[in-house]
Amino acid sequence: MAKISITQVRSAIGRQEVQKKTLTALGINKMGRPVVHDDTPQIRGMVKKIEHLLSVEEMNE
Question: Which range marks the domain in which residue 43 is found?
């Protein structure tokens, strides 16, 4: 299965609570620290909600 690397590039300060909870659900707890997830529709949906805060890269395995 394909993987994606997600990195937070903008701060969550002053953002809506639902956006902060989405960051937590993705496992992102510090800016600049990438997390790797399977490329599923559920993960893509969460990324789409907060794409203005993230950088997403597709990984080849």
Answer: 3-59
Looking at residue 43, which CATH number applies to its domain? 3.30.1390.20
CB atoms within 10 A of CB 8: 20
Rounded to whole angstroms, the Cα distance separating 7 from 23 reads: 10
pLDDT for position 2: 93
Return the number of other C-beta atoms located less than 10 Å from residue 56's C-beta.
Answer: 16
Separation CA 16–CA 20 (nearest Å):
7
What radius of gyration do the chain's Cα atoms show? 11
Q: How far apart are CA 16 and CA 13, in angstroms?
A: 9
pLDDT tens for 5-61 read 999 999 999 999 999 999 999 999 999 999 999 999 999 999 999 999 999 999 987
